[in-house]
Give the backbone structure.
Amino acid sequence: MTPKGKKEFKASSSSINAKYGLLSTQWNKFVVDVMLESAEKELTSQGVKPNNIVKIEVPGAYELPLAAKRMLENDIDAVIALGAVIKGETPHFDFVSSSCANGLTRVSLDANKPVLFGVLTTETEEQAIQRADPNEGNKGAEVAQSAMELLEQLASL
């Protein structure tokens, strides 16, 4: 898989032997589960062993930062946070998506470990479905590959 705008990626032992946390949300499961499946498939297709993948499901996107923090405190090398926040008629969308993005960034910087943002923030369900479609460049798979690539780059510093 080569997402639009990215070069071909070949994993080495530093990313293959790493431990990954796959976080997903219960909200909008019809989209998130497709991304979760694609992310796990991408990791294993690159050589990551299933026992190096820890999966946790949290209620919603707002809860992702705390779960990511706990994962990183428990020997996880990189967290892949997956969710879908679909805009409604109230400002709730803005609060949840902003808090989630800022929280995950803070967790990553505080832990000095990668936390990848695989949370869709869309206007409609149709947009979310399109971005999760494995035939259209599934964001779960893209973020999983990005996690591996970032671990490779950080290991070289």
Summary: The radius of gyration is 15 Å. The first strand starts at residue 20 and ends at 25.
